[in-house]
Design goal:
The complex is a heterodimer of chains A (266) and B (311). With 266 residues, chain A is mainly alpha-helical. Chain A has eleven helices and no strands. Chain A has a single domain, classed as Orthogonal Bundle (MetI-like fold). Helix content of chain A is 81%, strand content 0%. The mean pLDDT of chain A is 82. Chain B has a domain of 206 residues: MetI-like fold. In chain B, α6 packs across α12. The chains are: A mainly alpha (266), B mainly alpha (311). At the A-B interface, α1, α4, α5, α6 and α8 of A face α2, α4, α7, α8 and α11 of B. Chain B: It holds the Pfam family BPD_transp_1.
């Protein structure tokens, strides 16, 4: 092991790359290689970001985005888990519905957005509907497969032990489906955030997406604000993705997929 | 990652929903993508042989479409007398679909969309595989830049759109840029993951045998990573289609997205529905085309999986 592979060096290298990028950004705009009317300087953006952090407008926008995202996710995911479980437990229903769901999954969710905008306008309902609709299909499929993925040995054991009904569901089906659902939820959370932002940008519902749009429309002087909002959106993405990944690890530490991951990391 | 029979049945711990490669066991389910294979395989459908098997498979799966047909018929019947502004009769939509998209002028919008998509997706795919491979080859650099890459990856790309419009204006370059920016990530990350998953033993063997770098890439790296690269490319395809539409919805004067938006603003709801349907059909045709290509490219892998599953 050389010095290059020590933990401190690795962290240092990462910090250095980030710092170099920010410095490069600042240099390019200071030297006016970047057109300042379309690309603000790093310091201006950061200063604006700092100002925004203290303003109520930003937190209101964040709250609107989080509300639309959270409600949509809650509705879409609960429906998907219930429907997926029911479909997964019945072979006939599963075989009948799979072609429809697999087809609908390939349809770009965004196709439904104009309809939602006409029906609900620039409201919270519109956002919630789009997010719920968008996360429903993939998670339903994931749940169906999870419910059906019970290990044959476990299934046979359950049969020998005459486990039935709710007990079988809680002790056999749910544990085997949980990792599938968790993966589906993690993906759904990220997709949901993207859809929320798109709904705000195109549908004009209040939130971070709309803030980005209005600051762009306000002209070049507000440009730092645009980039500040984009940065905040990125931070929201980081938070959502890592929170769900962390939860998945904590809640499913007993499952072999996580054990393997832990072993690999060690 | 050696393709062991149960490997894809475990939810992957990677970042994208990836480890899904179609199987041969179950025509309809497999044709319609995703992690379906292991279930088809486990549900123990006895595989027959050759063309007879295909025909029998088709027939025994055809009945499953009843639900799909029922939904369509129900939509047709229930909407026949619809006076709702938002949900016009399906018959009117079908009529308008023919008038505008097949007999009418809207085809140019379709071609415009597809052209941008094709260019953007190709660039994203090539760049994604190339950058992913470079990040794998130069692991220390990859490690150092990973936080930056990760941050750009999690920013919802749509949020970048207004800024990109401000920089590049309205036009083809803006649309292609946005498609590339969004679609590159799944391919890149899956390429990196797939190559990381190659057994070190194989690479060591190649070194011992003094294989040239080119031969190593061709006979070990690419085959080893191909299933996951294809999974990434498929995910990229879906994102590419979405961003194609989003870019047209926000700033454009042509394309399917523009058609839908324009119909919506004129309150021509029936026409808007035709745009939505065309978009849906385009999205699924592209996905099915991709699956067809994937089956050719991964034929050896699917074959190997089938043998393992039988055994």
């Amino acid at each position: 092991m050389t010095i290059v592979d020590t933990g401190w060096f690795r962290i240092g290298a990462r910090v250095l790359v980030v710092a170099a990028l920010l410095a490069g950004w600042q240099y390019l705009s200071a030297a006016e290689i970047l057109d300042t009317t379309s690309f603000p300087s790093m310091t201006a953006t950061m200063a604006e970001a700092g100002r925004q952090l203290q303003s109520a407008d930003l937190w209101l926008a964040v709250w609107e985005t989080v509300r639309g995202w959270g409600l949509g996710l809650l509705i879409g995911c609960s429906l998907a888990i219930v429907v997926g479980t029911l479909l997964g437990l019945n072979r006939f229903a599963y075989l009948s519905v799979i072609p429809v769901i697999e087809f609908l999954k390939t349809v770009p969710v965004i196709a439904i957005l104009p309809l939602a905008i006409v029906v609900w306008g620039a409201t919270l309902d519109m956002k919630v509907f789009l997010v719920a609709f968008g996360v429903f299909w993939p998670l339903t499929i994931q749940t169906i497969y999870g419910v059906r993925a019970v290990d044959p040995v476990v299934r046979d054991t359950a049969a020998v032990l005459r486990l039935r009904g709710l007990r079988k569901f809680l002790n056999v089906t749910l544990p085997s489906a949980a990792p599938f659902i968790a993966t589906g939820l993690r993906v759904a959370a990220a997709v949901g955030l993207i859809l929320t932002i798109i709904a705000e940008l195109i549908g004009g519902a209040p939130g971070l997406g709309l803030s980005i749009l209005t600051s762009v429309n306000a002209g070049p002087s507000r440009l730092p604000a645009t980039y500040a909002f984009i940065l905040f959106t990125g931070v929201a993405g980081v938070l959502v993705t890592s929170a769900f990944a962390y939860l998945e690890q904590r809640l499913l530490h007993w499952h072999e997929s996580q054990r393997n991951a832990a072993a690999k990391a060690a | 990652m050696t393709p062991s029979p149960d490997a894809p049945s475990r939810p992957e711990t990677g970042r994208t929903a990836s480890a899904d490669v179609p199987s041969v066991a179950d025509p309809i389910v497999a044709a319609a993508t995703t992690p379906s294979q292991q279930f088809a395989a486990r549900s123990g459908r006895a595989p027959g042989g050759g063309a007879g098997r295909l025909l029998r498979g088709l027939w025994s799966n055809l009945w499953r479409l009843w639900f799909f047909v029922t939904v369509l018929v129900l939509w047709w019947v229930l909407s026949a007398d619809s006076t709702s502004t938002f949900f016009p009769p399906l018959r009117d939509i079908a009529q308008s679909l023919y008038d505008t998209w097949i007999a009418g002028e809207a085809r140019s919008d379709l071609w415009s969309s597809l052209r941008h998509f094709a260019v953007g997706y190709t660039i994203a795919g090539v760049l994604g595989v190339a950058v992913g491979a470079l990040l794998w080859k130069f692991q220390r650099i990859g490690h150092a830049v990973s936080p930056v890459l990760y941050f750009i990856y999690v920013i919802p790309t749509a949020a970048l759109l207004p800024a990109i419009v401000a920089i590049m204006g309205i036009g083809s370059s803006m649309k292609i840029t946005i498609i590339v920016l969004a679609a590159i990530w799944p391919t890149m990350l899956n390429t990196l993951d797939g190559m990381r998953g190659i057994e070190p033993l194989r690479l060591d063997t190649a070194r011992v045998l003094h294989m040239s770098p080119l031969a190593t890439v061709r006979s070990i790296v690419l085959p080893g990573a191909m299933p996951q690269i294809m999974a990434g490319l498929r995910h990229s395809l879906q994102i590419g289609v979405i961003m194609m539409v989003v870019s047209e919805l926000i700033a454009s004067r042509e394309g399917i997205g523009f058609f839908i938006l324009e119909a919506q603003q004129r309150f021509a709801i029936t026409e808007m529905w035709t745009g939505i349907i065309v978009l849906a059909v385009v999205g699924s045709i592209l996905t099915f085309l991709f699956i067809a290509v994937e089956r050719v490219v991964l034929a050896w892998y699917i074959g190997a999986r089938a043998v393992e599953q039988k055994g």
